Amino acid sequence: MKILYSFVAIIMLFIVVSCNSKSKDKEEDQKNTSKKVELPELKLTIDTISISKFYQEYPKLEKFKKDVASLYAEKKAAQLWLDNKGVVEFGNTLFNKYRSLEDEGLKANFPYNDKITPIFERLSDNKLSQIDTDLMITNLYFYYAEKVFNGVDEKTSTSLEWLLPRKKVNYQAFSDSIFKHATINDDNKSKMFSQYYKLRDVLKKYREIEKKGGWKTIEVGDDFKSLKEGDSVATIAQIRERLYITGDIKENNKSELCDSTLISAMKDYEFHHGNTPKNIILKEHIDELNVPVSDRIKTIIANMERCRWIDPQLEKDKEYIEVNIPEFRLYLIRDHEISFISPVVVGKAMTKTVIFSGMMSYIVFSPYWNVPQSIINKEIKPGMAKNKNYLAQKHLEWNNGAVRQAPGVNNSLGLVKFLFPNSNNIYLHDTPAKSLFQSENRAFSHGCVRVAKPKELAIELLKDDPKWNPEKIDKAMHAGKENWYTLKKKVPVYIGYFTAWVDRKGQLNFYKDVYQRDESLIKLLTEE
What we know:
By secondary structure, the protein is of the alpha+beta class. The protein has 18 helices and 18 strands.
């Protein structure tokens, strides 16, 4: 028996030793295997010679050469997007963002799409060298940054008569930030004018509506005049469904009865589409409802592009005035809140109000109107030829070879004007033609901006000035004698052009394209 136990013990010892030996051998094999799959660190040298050769091969990307060269110089000529395993994760993120440019209202049309796509989607089809691969991705990066954060170049936007100061994109600083955080998402929404992000959100909503088939055309007969509360026709159910799709009415009960809920929703819809709310539904309102979702999307995209041109620093001003031409409204912003709103009249199609900015420096009470030479030639001289008393009847007088209108209630500038000196000779002013503010389309002026509530604007601008109070302002306006006052602090004035705008309550507004500026911009953004 002892012999048997001894034999068993020897066998067990052998097994343990053998297992331990196998375990050690396995660990050693794993270590060796691990060593075998480790690859040496990838070190490429992408110098000025490599960069020059790249642009000789791919000249359509030449405009990025300076920024690309600066970026590689800063990174000591090392590659940016590749390691020994291939493209780094951040590179794949960039490509996915590029392929999702539609979310930014843009088309993905990188000049060498046939070269960039195989790098990420068909790795075996990538015929580029490692250096050219890295350079191609870097150019995609600058292409994406330009498209999303800068938009069309300044020469193009100027040709579209946009004279507001353009945002300057510092690609070097932008690159530093991007590579430091390894992301191209703007999570804190700081790189763009805030309106851009709001429009981007509604673009997503409208694209979803489009995918679901949009909305049906509301059918009305040739004899259609209006609908009012209490009417009951099939058209009412169509209107209700249309408003429900865009969230302008909370519930679709499919009723054909025009009730107070529908009228209230339509009045709200009319207001947010630049119309005067009414207690009846007119043909023009039906036409507005019938604008296809595809057209609304194009309008949103055009206005996202305009937002790319605006410096987000604008919104950090403590106080400024903004005028949106298609909206026919002026806003005084103070401490990031709206402190004053006024309807305005803007220039006619033939005498458009210029899209630009200036610094308001003066308020002129009881102003003279120094008539522009163009108006003298087109209106005053023909009027004088027909009527010898024309000047007197219009309260006009010759002044050193020019024509001016004396201060007073009949003055075309009204009782006060607000000057922000500029080469366009555009300013804000009162007007005796108050009835024009009742019109929905208020494009009537020769280019200047007429303010419906000029006295109230003056009070707001001078509220912190001890020299002025409402009574003194009213007296100066009716003095009949011109009085210039220099503002203690200049106020920025921005005159813009937005046909789609998300207000501070999150409501999307569409305005009529009074100067027909959208079409050319949309064509520019959507062409192949």
